[in-house]
Amino acid sequence: MSDTTMNPAGAEPAAQPEPTLAGPPAQPEPAAQPGPAAPEPAVHAPAEPGPAGRRAGFAVRAAASVAAAALLGVGIGLGILEVGFDDSPAPAAATAQPSGAPTASAGPAFGAQQNGTHFGSMRDLLLPVPAGFRLGADSGAFGNDTELTEAQRKAWVEDEVRGLPAKLQDAVRKAWQEIPLKGGGVRSFAAEDGSMQATVWLLQYHQAAVKAHDAWVAALGSDSGLFRVGPPIPGHPEAHCYLPDLAPGAEIDELECSAALGDLRVVLHVEGIAPLPKDRIVPLFAQQLDRLAIPGASA
Question: How far apart are CA 244 and CA 60, in angstroms?
Fold first, then answer.
């Protein structure tokens, strides 16, 4: 995704790409200069970024690739992916209905089971466009409101592999084949005032890999000294946010938030006019995590 997107956790490989925070989102244009009929800043129609902007825009993708290498067959190995989790849906109990008895109402179309497995379409699991936003720009080739097909999921994995050092690519590609991306979805939101764009990715794969990957990314974001620590998400201690370094006087800033919920890795990437409105971003991510809540899970 991309992330899409930072991805899985584990020991850091020897030759890493420069860590930067999930796929390169569209760069917003800087605010228009005062004058007659000045247009609103268009986050959804970016100009070509300079070198500094490109480094920031590729932050998430580089970190995703490093994390993928560390987890998937390079660092802690595939053994961690075989322990302790049942990702299969709980079987429905078959009960005989008496003749003429009313049938039970259908269950929810999407949600989570107590074992952490999410069900339903990714487009249902993704947060609907909230007030004050509209659908934003496409996230690369994956669109702005998409449940990834099998072909698109393979393309997402290939994007992640492509960012790795050549000597790691085959090992990571093989690992993704053994731990397939079972589902993926992306939805982008552009603020109606043109001040920012937010992109949410949902990536569904083995729960142990999701958890380990996200823990590694959290450590990279908070402990490496490469990023500014972002705001907490009230009610969601599993979430963590961070920002790349910002040059003095920079007009555009970025923020990345990530969380592991059962078999879903949730990534939010925001770009917009500095300073970013964290009072709008934090509720956005909290609402997405609330929508994916696992029954019976403690905060």
Answer: 10
